[in-house]
Amino acid sequence: MPSTSHFLALVTAATGALGHAVVTKPQPRVAGPAYTELCGSTYSTYMEKDPAGPIENGVAQAGSSLGCNAYLCRGYQYEDNEAAAYKVGDVVVFHVDLIAGHHPGFANVSVIDLATNTILGDPLKVWDDWPNATATTPRSDIDFNVTIPESLTSACDVGGKCAIQWYWYAGGNKQTYESCVDFYVPA
Ligand SMILES: *[C@@H]1O[C@H](CO)[C@@H](O)[C@H](O)[C@H]1NC(C)=O
Ligand SMILES: *[C@@H]1O[C@H](CO)[C@@H](O)[C@H](O)[C@H]1NC(C)=O
Ligand SMILES: *[C@@H]1O[C@H](CO)[C@@H](O)[C@H](O)[C@H]1NC(C)=O
User: Fold this and answer.
1) GO molecular-function annotation terms (predicted)?
2) % pLDDT > 70, the chain
3) Which residue among 34, 44, 173, 187 is least crowded, i.e. fewest CB within 10 A of its CB?
4) Which amino acid residue places its CA nearest to atom 1 of ligand 3?
């Protein structure tokens, strides 16, 4: 069936232009009722079709119906999730499910203050060029560890104040990808 295979080739080419990636370890923030209520069902329905897809597409789809900051944790809400307890010095093992890479791009991992959407302290990881086009396994761009810094003990003492945010910006297509890991540092 030449027409079908031609169609499939076009679909593959079209989706190949999009990047797709999401953190799968540790458990990142996910969708829930508070998110759908605040962001709106147009945005949430669109984004949940592809949890690894770029934020910009959902924002464009939602238009004026968007009721949340989509660029803070992809719009996902703390109310729908739970914070992990990490001690200072704990090594947190990350895995990014990279479904489709796209260049050029950069990525970083930072602890963010959720109330102000600002970075706390120094970034935990910075990649000037992400994903690594020549990477061989084990890949340090998608499998990496971060260490919980001492400077966060008071700023992140209870759940809902801080998240570790993984951030990827694919500059060619102007597409943003984010995953947040809620955590707190128990006293
Ligand atoms: C990480 O990405 C965010 C979003 O663009 C940016 O605000 C921040 O400056 C970046 N951090 C580094 C160290 O590049
Ligand atoms: C990309 O991967 C290659 C092959 O594993 C490695 O030699 C290189 O250092 C990596 N680049 C960066 C920036 O980590
Ligand atoms: C990350 O930490 C785990 C557990 O401590 C360790 O087994 C693994 O080798 C570390 N990975 C990297 C890339 O350092």
Assistant:
1) metal ion binding
2) 90
3) 187
4) 145
**CB 163 within 8 Å of CB 179:** no
User: In this structure, which amino acid lies at residue 51?
Assistant: P
Q: How far apart are CA 185 and CA 169, in angstroms?
A: 28
Whole-prediction pTM: 0.88
At residue 162, what are phi and psi to the nearest 5 degrees? -135, 150
Decide: 71 and 178 in contact? Cβ < 8 Å.
yes
108 lines ligand 1 (CB under 6 A): yes
Report DSSP letters for 59-88, one per residue. HHHHGGG--S-TTSGGG--GGGS--EE--T
pLDDT in tens, 67-119: 999 999 999 999 999 999 999 999 999 999 999 888 899 999 999 999 999 99
Which segments within 26-174 are labelled E, that is strand? Answer: 84-85, 91-100, 105-113, 118-127, 143-147, 162-170
For residue 45, pLDDT beyond 60 = yes
Cα–Cα distance for residue pair 159/185, rounded to 1 Å: 8
Whether omega for the bond prior to residue 28 falls within 30 degrees of 0, making it cis, is no
Nearest to 101 by CA among 183, 175, 25, 34: 175
Which of 93, 96, 132, 144 maximizes ligand 3 atoms within 8 Å of its Cβ, making it the mutation to test the pocket? 93
Token pair in block for residue 160: 């809902």
